[in-house]
Amino acid sequence: MREYTIKSTRKGKDYVWGTLYYSDKTGKFRMRFRCAPDEMKKDNPPAMIHRFMTNGRMELDHELASLWVSDRIIPKDRQNIADILRENNLTTYREIDMLELCMGRCTLDDIYLVREK
Q1: Which residues contact 98 (CB under 8 A, 6 or more apart)?
Q2: C-alpha separations of 51 from 30, 68, 105, 117 in Å
Q3: What is the rounded radius of gyration, in angstroms, for the C-alpha atoms of the chain?
Q4: What residue ranges do the domains of the chain occupy?
Q5: pTM for the complete prediction?
Q6: What pLDDT does residue 55 have?
Q7: Is the pLDDT higher at 67 or at 54?
Q8: CB contact at 8 A, 8 and 16
Q9: How far, in Å, CA of 110 to CA of 95, rounded?
Q10: 3-state secondary structure of 85
Q11: How far apart are CA 81 and CA 76, in angstroms?
């Protein structure tokens, strides 16, 4: 099981929003917020975290966690995906590989991942 801390840095302060898990056996993601969504809202989470904080949910199943991941990776149908794979010594497209290439960084916010396990 791979484990990533979900972080962001704003105005010189580091925030931990939760943990992303990936199972190499099943190929599935899941996410757990660091605390109850009502408590996290006071820290003004980035939109890409806030939009998944519904119904007091502390954990996202594979379906919702995969949606979050898909917003943060190079899409499979990108025009030059074969070149990107080749330049990174990858033979096939896998979401987890794309996520690790950029450690969750994207142009939408300041979130990044730190691999713990």
Answers
A1: 73, 74
A2: 16, 10, 17, 27
A3: 15
A4: 2-115
A5: 0.87
A6: 66
A7: 67
A8: no
A9: 20
A10: helix
A11: 7
